[in-house]
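Section 4.2 – Deliverable D4.2 (structural model, holo form)

The reporting period included a commitment to supply a predicted holo structure for the target in complex with flavin-adenine dinucleotide. Inputs used:
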Amino acid sequence: MQLSFDPEIEEFRAEFVAFLAEHMPDAAAAAADRPISSAEVPPWAREWQRVQFDHGWLLPGNPPEFGGRNAGILQQYVHLEELSRRRIYHSFNPQGLGIIAASLLSFGTEEQKIRWARRILRAEITAALGMSEPGAGSDLAGLRTRAVREGEEFVVNGQKVWTSGAHDADVLLTFVRTDPDAPKHKGISVLLIPTDTPGVTRRPFASICGPHDLDFNEVFFEDVRVPAANLLGPLHGGWGVANGSLGHERTLLWLSFADRLQELLEDFTPHTALDKDRYATLAMDNQALRLLGSAALAREARGEQDVAALSVLKLLGSEAVQSAAEQALYARESDGLIHPAMTAPFNPLNNDNFVASWFERYTRSFAGTIAGGTSEIQRNIVAERVLGLPR
Ligand SMILES: Cc1cc2nc3c(=O)[nH]c(=O)nc-3n(C[C@H](O)[C@H](O)[C@H](O)COP(=O)(O)OP(=O)(O)OC[C@H]3O[C@@H](n4cnc5c(N)ncnc54)[C@H](O)[C@@H]3O)c2cc1C
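Output (structure tokens):
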């Protein structure tokens, strides 16, 4: 296995490193004005995202008019590697960038791409993802929020939950049932709903990480009138959009887990013999994840699709991060519970999430084993599609 990159990929990396050296934001401004949810982007961070967009470094795989340079998967990988090496966030609206703008570019009309995707990518507006509902999470196709067509509008009624950053977002990518009589996967559509539309109520609520962590929202829709032009993708074709949307999130997802694991290894110092033994296991998990991920990357670069293998990576990565955070928490004993406490040096260009107490880092690791498909769901996929076991 070749684990180094060809010279043209290294040239691409060098060009990005030179861009970072020249354009990184002022650390003092970043330190003073911290983001408070996954759709609240402070002015300096909006400017930073815009600079990356303008130079084609925001999402290098995108075409230039959408903040990229038509880069291939290996180039996208080294781009992320350089960001992570410096613990830099390129956007503080991750769902907007990684899922919503990406879905718009795949399924949107030209007008929708300009009106919504480009503004999200340039950090002029932020977006949140309205998929999950009470009773429709893993089984997304069971969603019940209804949209009824009336002339040139849809009228939406229902409720979403876990909508990260909704209270700070300008627009919600909302999955709704448009055909209640069709089989449940076939009657779903996707609407872009501006959050200032009358009838939209957003209620943020705290997470297990602490009362300060107000990112989750319940979102209620009461006779919300949405222009038909805000339909994304085909009417009743929302299931395809959902699979595409989460697919965007998945391709290099394993790398973010590997980075989290790497950070944990850097931030956690083992002292006792038992801690050192556990630490060695984490180092091996990190290595295994990176080797398996590199093999998946090489397959993707050759144009081979292996979606089930991505489930193996998500499962291994998210659970390894969780186990690492748990071990670090145990090793620090009661000190690990001190809140707020810093477990890593403050980095102005990163989210504060990963410089929190060990307790918070551990509880936050559940985001990885739940969001984007729980570990149990990944195990079902691995059982059926990788191991060929019966349902
Ligand atoms: C940090 C975070 C951010 C999130 N952000 C968003 C967001 O921005 N927008 C959004 O729409 N949603 C968001 N979610 C919601 C997320 O998508 C759901 O939590 C997830 O899909 C699981 O759904 P659920 O919570 O309804 O659990 P359920 O689906 O009710 O599952 C409960 C338990 O049953 C298990 N289970 C369910 N079905 C099966 C099965 N078939 N076989 C075996 N076990 C099963 C699950 O694994 C889980 O342990 C977020 C979640 C988290 C943790």
